[in-house]
Amino acid sequence: QVQLVESGGGLVQAGGSLRLSCAPSGRTFSSYAAAWFRQPSGKERAFVARISRGGIVTYYADSVKGRFTISRDSAKNTVYLQMNSLKPEDTAVYYCAAGSYVGTVSNYYKADFYDYWGQGTQVTVSS
Distance between CA 99 and CA 91 in Å, rounded? Predict the structure, then answer.
């Protein structure tokens, strides 16, 4: 069992930046691909970004391309989401996820294909 812990959320003005971190408790992260999803209040959880086990291949939702960067530090056993040029519509609870699935790329965007989840961290962007 892998328990994920997110940190780094908070309140920021539009145009600002935040960096989210995700680390597992008790297990190494290196065996899993990792991803970030977000869920605005009253809406469904949506894919944000994914990074491969080796940290080489990344995928992004169109809405965050060019503004967000997902990365991982194996030495620190941590995955990051650097968020720049934040917009009010980025306001949501952000969830870290990890999973062993490797296959059809379209499935990488689906929450069902991830095995482990964090508790979420709130990001609020004010206009």
Answer: 25
